[in-house]
Amino acid sequence: MKVLDLSYHPLDCRSGRWVDLSRKGNHGTPYGGARPYMIAPGVMGYWFDGSSGYVDCENASLRVIGGGFPRASDQGVATDGTYIYTACRIQLYKHSMNGDRIKASPIIDWHIGGITYHDGYIYAAVSECSSSGTTKHWVYKYDTDLNKVAEYDIGDYFTICAGAIAYYDNHFYVAESYFDGGHYDRIVKFDTSFNYMETIEVSHKCMYGVQGIEYIASKNLFQINCHSQQFYRINTSFDSSTIKIGLSPFTLQDLAYLNDSVSIYNNPVAGRVEFVDNSLLQTFADLIKEEYTIQTWFNVMGGAGTRRFIFESYWFWAISCEISGNNRLKYSIQTDGTSVIKETDRLPSYGAWHCVTIVYKQDNYSKIFYDGIELSDYTGAPSGMLKPFFILRIGTYRYANGRWFKGLIAQPVIENRAWSEAEIRENMYRSPIYRMLRGLPHSQVYIRVPWKQTQGGIYVP
């Protein structure tokens, strides 16, 4: 099954995306200096400028089911099953389920972050939220008429901002927010009187720290929302090995569990409350955990002596291919056991098209093919599970802040099985790029043609 196929279809002019023909929804969205480029008849590739251009292939794990409403708040959200409560930075609001505002709380002096409902009361994480550090952190307790009835000082346990809060199994969990993405996710556990129990550190770094936390009862998991489109679910012991990363179709903030099927999310960019299915959609990363083949065409046009990534996955480099600082073709596969990092002896010619294929089979082998030929000296022996990811980045590496590719990339395809050498060459021969370079007429009907190779440019018409 193909799980990503950006091979033949031209650009979707309405969205500006590289259209995924696999029907898995992993459409390629360009950023920075990435521009669509007609490579061959029926093939739309991208030109990458070598300084800021890349394309993200991602699909959302969450599905908005409708019924949301506009609101003026941009922080927390909670529900008692009858009403919805939201928070802006200094005030709480009470809404009906269809969005009618019923009441607002008095304005406070500090920053309100996440909120949660438990046993007839709303609990709000409140802080001074100073980037230079502060000890001013509280939990405010409100009744459902939004009258403050108690406050709890938790300043000894936070350094920047107590930003999110959840309740589960007779304990409250308050998570820290930051002004950067350089901290491991930190969650402090309290009893119901906010006596300190323990501090939990998760081996994950949310951008700006944790923005939302909630126990998803129907899944028996916590969900952690970052200040981006990324979230993850984790078991109730916060064991980092249980992390399952997901992607939202909108920027995330807080969330509130409504029932077994639905949770309520704050959508801060759109200024809306959204109703979202609790079941996660399957992503292409889920489909290739045991084996995969990725094939693409590329044409290097600059950047000698620097690392230039043809593609790499994010969060981890489960899929990775680059031109190294030594100008050699290199591939990497990250697992939770023995990973693979192989720099080959091949020096891709500038201004010439090349086809690279990487094949992975869990606890068995990894292989790289260059222009249809296996580079057998660079076979790997990966072990363990493939590391999780939720975006494939084309034209840069996983963090998309450097290591830019300069040149053209076209026809990236991923399939959730290991192709044979014969299949790899067959798929390469079928490409309109191959036909163009061999001087053959464009045709959707495949005709086998002789294969020749020279040092200066691999295709000889």
| Main sheet properties | 8 strands, antiparallel
> How much helix is in the residues?
under 10%
CATH class of the largest domain: Mainly Beta
Helix-strand makeup class: mainly beta
Q: What is the CATH topology classification name of the largest domain?
A: Jelly Rolls
Summarize the structure.
The chain is mainly β and 461 residues long. The chain is built from 3 helices and 35 strands.
What does this molecule look like?
It is a single chain. Strands 1, 3, 4, 26, 31, 32, 33 and 35 form an eight-stranded antiparallel β-sheet that branches. Strands 2-5-34-27-28-29-30 form a seven-stranded antiparallel β-sheet, with no helix packed on it. Strands 6-25-24-23 form a four-stranded antiparallel β-sheet, with no helix packed on it. The chain has two domains: 2-59 and 285-437, Sandwich (Jelly Rolls), CATH 2.60.120.200; 69-279, Neuraminidase. The model is unreliable at 443-461 (pLDDT under 50). It has three helices and 35 strands. 45% of the residues are buried. The chain is mostly beta strands. It has helices spanning 284-287, 421-430, 432-437, and strands at 2-5, 28-31, 34-40, 43-49, 54-58, 69-70, 77-79, 84-87, 92-95, 101-104, 111-118, 121-127, 137-143, 148-153, 161-168, 171-177, 185-190, 196-202, 210-216, 221-226, 230-234, 244-247, 255-257, 262-267, 272-277, 291-300, 308-315, 320-323, 329-333, 340-343, 353-361, 365-370, 373-374, 389-394, 406-415. Strand 8 and strand 9 form a beta hairpin. 4% of the residues lie in helices and 44% in strands.
